[in-house]
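=== RUN LOG ===
request id: a7f3
mode: sequence -> structure
chains: 1
length: 478
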Amino acid sequence: MKCHNCFVPYLSIILSCMITVLPLTHNSLSGGKSRVEINDVSNLNLTRVNRIVSPTTIAKLVNRVDAAKQAGLKVCAAGKRHSQGGHAFYKDAVIIDTNKLNKIIRLDKAKKVITVQPGVTWKQIQQFCNPHSLALKVTQTANIFTVGGSLSVNCHGRDPHYGPLIETIQSFRILLADGSIIRASRQENAELFSLAIGGYGLFGIITEVDITLTDNVVYRKQAKIIPITDYADFVKKNVVHNTDVGLHYGQIMFKDEKIISTTYTKTNNYNKKAFRINKERSILTGKWCLDLQRKYGSSKVCRNFFESTAKLREFMPETTCRNDAMQHRVECLEHVSEHDTDLLQAYFIPLDALPQFIQTLKKSIHDEKIRLLNVLVRYIPKDSESFLRYATEDRFEVVLFFNINRSTSDVAYTQAWTQHLIDTALALDGCYYLPTQLYATDTQIRQAYPMLDAFFTKKRVYDPSELFMNGFYKRYCV
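=== RESULT ===
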């Protein structure tokens, strides 16, 4: 029985999207009384919007945005709508669903650059590139997200040699509030390049992206159990500067105060089967394990069982290609319930401060009886390019995947212990990831992101009428 499947790496931002949509009419944007209700994966942010439109061409996209502007309506761009804090919604706004803008425009094999529309998923790119022996450099572990959405949150991956997604973007084209479409790169409109990647759709709608690729090499996957106090030194010595390492992450075992460190290292010992992109397996087993954790997450017996099972991975070396390793199991994560929901949080901690943060986290899990599903650690190199950056130095990302009741009281309780963890991260000169529930206070977010107000000021320079809007901007812009 492969119970270890419930311990999947980076139970990513963010699982399966639960969307409630009322019937749409075909009236013009300026007419009609119809309204649409949508929600995100958390089912905690039900929002009534004007309508959702799904353009199939860039020309139609421009017309839809212009019609909304003429009607005096706000505009939000949305891909899979997996951010959990209203980042793709706004009350009474027009939602531009980019999923049908999903064409792979061209592949330059010699330069290893692929050009795609914003609604293309990472899975599409992987399947398209695999026969050409090419692979992605950076993406979320789950490959179900759109390129446009991933750029908007400036996601990051498990390759320790690359920081956030911005490092792998050569250029993009973006529809601005004035109706023009311009190109942004490190050489052209460089400020907009740094603002829009990680800009949560507030500067415009990305219409085309040039992404740099790498070789689809074969790895040998091997795990090693390391004390939490030794993990930073292990990563510095064995992972960061090791060019043979392709992917790396750690899984925390609180009972033993250790980390299962999993590393993918280049190998020449493989056959043609190693280049396959495999289908998800053991879905029911994974669902069963997660359901047990949702029900008994605070049970010591349950935690001991799952942590002991996870140790078996140390003795299960695997051979796989980069494309297969970077497309992750998601079906076992799907959870539909009227009473509870799965949430995700991420904290970015300086390398040597990891043990201190983990100790506080361990105490919070015990004291607050958090129904924890998984905690993972990834190394994130320093980011010097994006404006609203979370990796101002080399950091470990600590990812929490947990379950809460959807009651008002439990949500408030979760907000309280979340603010405590944010304070802990800040005290250690760390920060937290923005595309989660908007639980941080105004003071906390500005301490974590001291450039936030300058970011908002530049948003109003590029978009003086605040055409592009979302719940995140509304909550924190003062």
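=== NOTES ===
The longest strand covers residues 205-215.
The CA atoms of residues 33 and 50 lie 8 Å apart.
=== END ===
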